Batch of 2 targets.
Target 1
Amino acid sequence: MTRANRGGVLVALGLAPVLGAAESPMSYLRTFGPAGDPATELGWGLGIVSILVMVVITVLVVAAIAKRRSPASSARELTVQRDEGGLSWIYIGVGVSTAVLIACAVWTMFTVAAVAMPAHAEDMTIRVTASQWWWNVRYENDDASQVFDAPNEIHIPVGRPVRVELSSTDVIHSWWIPQLAGKMDVIPGQTNVTWLQADKAGVYRGQCGEYCGAQHAHMAMYVVADPPRDYAAWAERQRAAASPGLQAALLRGQQTFVNNCGACHAVRGTAAGGILGPDLTHLKSRQTIAAGLLPNTPGNLSAWIANAQALKPGTRMPTMALSGSDLSAIVAYLDTLN
Amino acid sequence: MAAVLSGNDALRVPVIARPADDTSIEPRLDRIWETRKGLLGALSSVDHKTIGKRYLVTAFVFLLIGGLEAALMRAQLARPNQTLLSPEQYNQLFTMHGVTMIFLYALPVLSGFSNFLWPLMLGSRDMAFPRLNALSYWLFLFAGIFLYVSFPIGRAPDAGWFNYVPYSSLAYNPGINIDVYALGMVLLGLSTTVGSTNFVVTLIRTRAPGMSINRVPILVWGTLTASVGNLFAVPAVSLAFLMLWMDRRFGSHFFDVSGGGQPLLWQHLFWMFGHPWVYAIVLPAMGIVSDGLPTFCRRPLVGYTAVALATVTTMVLGFGVWVHHMFATGLPPISLSFFSAASFIIVIPSAVAVFAWIATMWTGRPQFTTPFLFFAGFVIVFVIGGVSGFMTAAVPVDTQLTDTYFVVAHLHYVLIGINVLPVAGGIHYWFPKFTGRLMNEKLGKWSFWIMFIGFNVGFFPMHIAGLLGMPRRIYTYPSGLGWDTVNMVITLGAYLFAFGVLLFAINVWRSLRHGERAGPNPWDAPSLEWATASPPPAYNFAVIPTVASRYPLWEDRLTGHEGRSSTGEGMLLDNGRETIGTSALDAVPDVILRMPGDSFAPLLLSLALAISFVGMLIHSWWLFGIAIACSTVAAVAWLWPEARLGQTMDIARGSR
C-alpha cells in the first residue's frame, strides 16, 4: 500500500488530525531505512486489521442492542428463550479470525527475515556503551589508531548499513532510534548486536527505551546521517586530538578543566583522560549536551557545569563548587573544542 | 439418594427435608452457622461471604489508592517539563501504582467475587477449607500493608512492577525499598497459593449433587483456571523474589553479572509468572460477563462448552507466551518466531468468547440495565485490548511498540477494560445478593457512561502517544516531540474516568442504606445463588440443592431437560457444620463433610508470618525467630484434632 493510500485510510478513520498534526521526531509511523521499513509496513497492516476488527465488533454490539433490545415495560415480567442457534456466530467468527491470524503470523515471519542484518553491515561497526544516563559511541576500525569515541551524537553515512554492538556499564537500557529501527536492549554481561541504515540524510532522535532509573526520561541520543563525503570529513575531525596552541587566557581554562573535570572527562591532547563521563574532545561539534537535554550553547553549558543536579536531578555529574571566574574560564575553554 | 457415611463409624443417610414444612430447621441452622457478634466474631469468622466481602472492600480501597497515585502522575505529565513531582517521587508512584493495581486490586477483587459466590453457585455451605480461606484473606491484607510500609518514609519500591535486575540490585538501588517489594511479594504469594488451592478443592469436592462439571457457571471455570494457573505460576515469582532478596542481602549472585549471574534469568522467571498472571486477572472477570450477560439477554449463553474450553485453553497457551515480553532482549530469531506464533494463536480462544457474547446478544433480548451496559461496554473494550495485544505479538512491530505508551494503552485496556468494567457490572449485578438491596439504576447508568467515555478518552490516545514514540516510565518530556496535546487529553480523560469511579462509589455507599430491597432473585437470573435469600443466611441453603441442569432457576421455561433441579427439598445436614462432598466430575454425593468452626488460628498464623517477614526486612533475627515460633503454635492450634471433625469414608465409596 502506498503512503498516499494509508493517508486515505487514516482520513476515513478520523485519526488524521491527531497523527497528521504531529511530525514527531520520535514517531515510527514512517521510517527511513531497511532496518525499520519492513516492520513499519507490517505495523500498518496489523494496525489496519485491528481497526477493522474494532469497527466490526463495535457495530455488531451496538446493532445487537439497537435491534434486539427488549421493550422497557417488560423489565420485570420476563420470558426466557430456549438455547437455540447462535453457534454459527462462533463458527464463522472464529473461523475468519483464525484465517486472519495465520496470515498475519506468516507475514510476521517474513518480516523477521526481512529486517535481519545484512552481511555487509560488518564493514562499519560502532560500539555503543550505555551508562546511567548517556551513551558512549566508539567508532571501530581495524586500524586501532583510527578508533575514536564521540558520545550521544552518532554520525553515520547515508545508505550504508551500520552494525551496532551494544553493552552496558550498569543497568539495562534499550537502544532505540524509532525512525530507523526498533529497540534492542542493552544488557550488562552480554553484547547484543543490531544494525541500522538511514536512506535519507537528516537527524534522527533516539531515546532509552527501558526504564533505567531517575533520569531515564533524559537519556536521548541523535543519529546524524550525512552524505558519505561529509561523514568521512566529520570522522577525520573527530579522530584528531583537541587543537593545541591556545592563547594564554584559555590555557588557564584548560588547566582548571583538567584539575576539576579531568578525572571523569577526557579531552584528547590534554592531561584530562577520565572515562566515567562523555569524551569532550570535540564538544562544540555536538548539537546538544547532557544526552539531549539542552541545546549546546555557552549559557547552557555554564548552567550545567554550575548545577547539573538542578537540571537533571540524580545525574552522575556532580554540582561543581567553582568560583565564577573558574567557571567562565572553563566554559571559554570548552568553547574552543570544535 | 446415595447413602453417605460420616462421623464416628456410623453409616448415616442424610435426612431429606422440606424447610417450608418445618419452621424449626432454619433457626437451628442459624445457631450452628452464625458467627458470634462483635469484634471477636469478626476476627475469627471463616464464613466465605464475610471473607468475600472483605476481599471486595479491601481491593476497592487499594484501587482508590492506586487511582490517587495515577492522578498525581497524570498531573505531572499533563504538560511538558513539569516539576510537580521529582523523578524519585514519580518513579515510586508509577511502581506502586502498578504493584497496587496488579497485585492488590485486580486478583483480590476477583477472589472477593469468587469467595462470596462460589459456594452459593455450587450449592454448598462454604468453601472446602473455610479456615484456609480466612488465612488467605489475612495474608493478603498484611502483604498489602507490608508493601506500603516504606511509602511514608519516601522509599517505596521504585524499579517498576517487573523490577528488572540489575536496576533493582543493591548496587543501583540501595535501601529498604526493593527488599520491601521482594519480601512483600513472597508473603502475598502465600496468600495466592493458599486461596488457589482452596478454589481447586472446592470445585472438585463441594458441588451440589447433580452439578456435574459441565453445569458449573463460567465464573467458576474462570476462577478454577486462574487458580490452577496461579499454582504453577506463583512459585516462579516467589522464587525469583527470594533469589533477589538473597542477592541483595547475602551476596548470592543469582542475577549479578560480576559474580557470574544472569540479568535475563530474572526476566524469564518474572514473565513465566507474569504472563499467566495476566490471564488469572482477566479470566474470572470474563466469567462474570459470561454469567451475567445471559441473564440480561434472557437466554442461555451461546456456546457454553466452547467458552468453558476456551477459558482453559487460554491459560494453557498463556504459559507458552512469556517471551513476548522479551522480544527486544536479543534472543535468537528462531525462539522469537515460536513465541510470536504462540502469541498470535492465543487470540483464538478469546475470539471464541467474543463471538459467544455477541451471539448471545443477537439471539437474545437485551435489557438495558446498568450491569448489561457494563458487560456490553466491556465486549467493545475487550476487543480493543485484544487487537493491540495482537499487534505486539509481531516481533518486528513489537520492537517499536514495546516500552512505549502503546503498551501502556494496551495493558490499561486489558486491566481496566477486562477487569474493572466487569467488576463494576458484577457489583451492580450481585449487589442485592451481597447486601439485600439493589443499587440505584439511574446513578449506575450515569457512572457507566462517565466511566466508559472517560476511559476511552483517557486511554485510547495513549496508543497514539506510543505511536508518536513516547516511552513509558518517563517522569517528564520536552515539548517539540508532538506529545503535548495528546498528554493533556489523556490527563483530562483519566480524570473523567476517575469521576465515574467516584460516582460508582457514591452509588454503592448510598445503596447500602437506601437501595430498594431485593427479593431472592431480583433479576430473574438462572443460577443457584439466586435461589436463596438476599443476603443469604449464614448456612447459605437450608437444604442442599439438587441440580439437574445448567440453569436450575430457568428450568420451568427452558424445555428439553430431563430432570428438575430442587432447592426446596434436599439433604438436611444439621449435626454441626456440615456440607456434602461429591465426586469430581459427575457430582455424585459420597461423603458428609464436617466443616470447621470459626477460629482465631488463621488470623494469628498470618499475623505471626507477617511479623516474621518484618523481622527479615529489618534483619532482626530474634524477631524473626519469635514470630516463626508463634506461627508454629498457631499452626498446631489450627491442626489440633477435634473429635467432631473426624471423617471416615471407606464404606461410603462403595455405596454410590
Note: The longest strand of chain B covers residues 566-572.
Target 2
Amino acid sequence: MPLRDPCYKLPVSRFYGGPNVISLLFALMTIAIILAWRDRWRLSYMVFAVALVMSIYWLDYHATSPLTIRL
Amino acid sequence: MIILAPHPSRTLNAIGLLVICGILIAAYAFQFALDELPCPLCLLQRVALVGVGYGLCLNLIYGAKPHHYGIMLLAAIYGGSVSIRQILLHIVPGTGSYGSPVLGLHYYTWAGISFFLVILGTAVMLLFEGQYKKALVDKPEHGRFGGQPLAKFAFFLMLFLALANVLTTFLECGPGICDDPPTDYKLLEELKSDG
C-alpha cells in the first residue's frame, strides 16, 4: 500500500516535493488583490512581495535545461 | 509637466487591465481548445501577468501612484525574464518548441512581446505627473474605483481570472511540483485512478 500524505489523501510518491508552489503563487497574488480591495494595502504589498520572491526562486528551480547558445 | 486628470488615467489603467485579462483568457482558450497544457515556465509567465494585473488593480482602487506602476514594472521584468529564458531554450533551429504557434510566433514569444509592451506603456504612463496630484484625487462621492463601471468590471474580471488560475493550476499539477512537460491534469488523473 503506498504511503499517503494526510493533508491531500493522495500518494506522496506521485507528488513528492511539497506543496504545489505555482498554484500557491497564484493564490498569493489573488490574496494580494483581495487585500487591496479590502483596504489592507500594507499587508497586500507584503503578500505581493512574498509571491514575487517565491516566483524568482521557482524560476531558478524550473530553469534547469542548459541553453545551447554562446553568450 | 504633462497633466493627465485622474479620470483619463483610471480609464487607461482599466483598459490596460482588460488587455491583461484578454491575454489570460486567450491562454485559457488555447489551453482548452487545443488541449495544450501550460508548462511550468508558461505558468510562471501567467503569474507575472497576474502580478501586472495587481499593479493595475491598485491604480483602479486607490488612484494612480508611482509605486503602483513600480509594482507593474517589477512583475513585467520578472515575466519578461521567464519569457526570454524560454525563447532562448528554443532559439537555435532544431531545438524544438513548446505549444502551437499563433500567427507564426509561439506563446512565450508573444508573452515576451506583451511584457515589453507593459514596460513601455508603464514608462509612458509614469511621465504624466498630473495624475498623482492631490487636488485631482477622486471625490468621496465617487466611491471606489472612482465611480467607474469599466474600472469595477476590469477589477472583478482580473480577480476571477486569478482565482481560476489557482484552480486550474492545482488541477494540472496537483499538490506537488508541476511535471515538465505536463502530460495531463495530474490531480484529476490521480483522483480517477484512486476511485
Note: The first helix of chain A runs from residue 21 to 37.
